[in-house]
Design goal:
Distance between the termini: 56 Å
Radius of gyration: 16 Å
Order of helices and strands: EEEEEEEEEEEH
CATH superfamily: E3 ubiquitin-protein ligase SopA
Helix content: under 10%
Number of strands: 11
CATH architecture: 3 Solenoid
Shape: elongated
Strand content: 15-25%
Length: about 160
Amino acid sequence: MTEVANRGAAFDRCTFRRVRFNASSHQDAAFVNCTFAECNFFDAAFTGCKFVGSSFEHCRFDAMRVVGGNWSHVSLRGADLTGASFAGVRLVEADFAGAECAGASLRDLDFRGADMHGADLRRCDLRGSLLDALDPTAARLEGAIITPEQAALLAMALGLDVRAD
């Protein structure tokens, strides 16, 4: 799959083992309920793709870019996403537990119901993302970039009484 240009292909319940997606581009493609094991996504781009119910095990995501699409119910448990970029992606009830995201760009994401327990979000750009499911005591957040509205939400999650005056 290296350097492939995929537009609209659909995969359902497929297993990708040790597949290199390096420098590939995927637009409006679907990878539904698929398993990715030991795959490499170096410099891969996914635009408007659907990964609902898929799982990633021991994969590499260096310089991967994801724009739009639906990645709800995916398992990225323990994944190293430090060099990845996600923007405008739906990640409802995704499993990010223990994910290494330090320094990653996770902008304008829908994390409703996501499991982010133990996730490393240090220096991560989270601006615009829905963080309702994030327990600030159960993830590493030092230096994370957020908006004032997100800061108020996290403060309330800590039990603080946030007031304008």
